[in-house]
Amino acid sequence: MLVRGLLQAQLDFSKYTNLRTKAFIRPDLFSDPAIRRFPDASKLVSRAVKLEWETIDLYGLMWQYLANSSDSKASESFRKVLQRIRAI
């Protein structure tokens, strides 16, 4: 019910030309045909894009997250470790 409601809300927002919505939904949740049984659901299905991540990109995202952590001590410690590694 939640996924279906999310998709219906996204379709409702499509009326507003200055707003763009994105919904990231796992493929196993989106594959259930019952989720897509509401008026104009085909509009969302036709615009669906499959998002795939390479392993190296996921590692890069993790390192970026660690470096930009809101915990300044953790972020600073992480940067110091990277500087030591770079110096080797």
Explain what you see:
The mean pLDDT is 82. The chain is mainly α. It is built from 5 helices and no strands. It is elongated.
What's this entry about, in short?
The protein is elongated. The chain is an all-alpha fold and 88 residues long. It is built from five helices and no strands.
Biggest β-sheet strands, sense, barrel: none
The whole-angstrom Rg is: 20 Å
Strand segment count: 0
Order of helices and strands: HHHHH
State the separation between the terminal residues, measured CA to CA.
54 Å
Tell the overall outline: elongated
Q: Which percent range fits the helix content?
A: 55-70%
What's the assembly state of these chains?
single chain
Count of runs of 4 or more consecutive helical residues: 5
SSE class:
mainly alpha
What share of the residues does DSSP label as strand, in percent? under 5%
Task: List low-pLDDT spans.
Answer: none
Average pLDDT figure: 82
Question: What's the structural blueprint in terms of helices and strands?
Answer:
Layout: H1 2-13, H2 27-30, H3 41-46, H4 55-67, H5 72-87
